[in-house]
Design a protein that fits this description.
about 210 residues, 9 strands
């Protein structure tokens, strides 16, 4: 049994139950988890069938990294929030962590995204007032970003350029692609989206479908 703020200890070997729930949440088959983690599909099947009573630490670490939990959480030795296994739950990440390896691993806060989205979707709090406007966002509002949604003209995107991250509206013209603020009073209301910039994802929800 997995409950919020409680240890998952439904049995002497809760790994199978927790693993099955997390795979369901991430919509991963045994083969897909094997491909992502480097753990063989037969080994994953043995864990799920509870034939592997004490999986190797290296095996648990590889699987846990893919599923965004710790090995101890996967083994039921640390609390695991119900939100982490809720269908549609995505991690809230920090702006500072964007672009870092393992950004989606080991989160303490999760939110349910109420619309269809990919497994790569994450949430961010809006910082500052660059995107305040009639069709904009307020500071502190949570935005859901899906890296698998193609950024097109008029969509709001999160962009990483060097060590700087930006939240702007994408404007595509014959002259090129630009990033625009929704706050007309912003000191630099429009900037060129250069080739070295990385679009981390497109905003798909923030209180309403975007």
């Amino acid at each position: 049994m997995i409950t919020s703020n409680a240890k998952a200890t439904a049995s002497d070997n809760p790994v199978a139950e927790i693993l099955e729930a997390l795979m369901s949440k991430h919509r991963l088959s045994q083969t897909e988890l094997a491909n992502r983690s480097g753990v063989s599909q037969p080994a994953i099947n043995r864990i799920l069938k509870e034939r592997a009573k004490q999986p190797r630490k290296e095996t648990l670490q590889k699987i846990a990294d893919v599923l965004g939990v710790t090995p101890d959480q996967l083994m039921g030795q640390e609390p695991i929030s119900a939100r982490m296994i809720a269908t549609g739950a995505v991690p809230i990440v920090s702006w500072e962590s964007l672009g870092q390896e393992g950004t989606h691993s080991r989160h303490s806060e999760w939110l349910v995204c109420p619309i269809d989205h990919s497994n790569e979707t994450f949430a961010l709090p809006v910082l500052g007032d660059a995107m305040v406007g009639d069709d904009g966002y307020r500071e502190g509002e949570i935005i859901f970003i899906d890296p698998c949604v193609t950024p097109v003209h008029g969509k709001d995107v999160v962009v990483l350029k060097g060590e700087m991250a930006f939240f702007r509206r994408l404007v595509v013209t014959p002259e090129g692609r630009f990033l625009k603020t929704l706050n007309s009073s912003w000191p630099t209301p429009i900037m060129l989206l250069t080739d070295d910039a990385i679009v981390c994802g497109t905003v798909v929800f923030s209180g309403r479908v975007r």
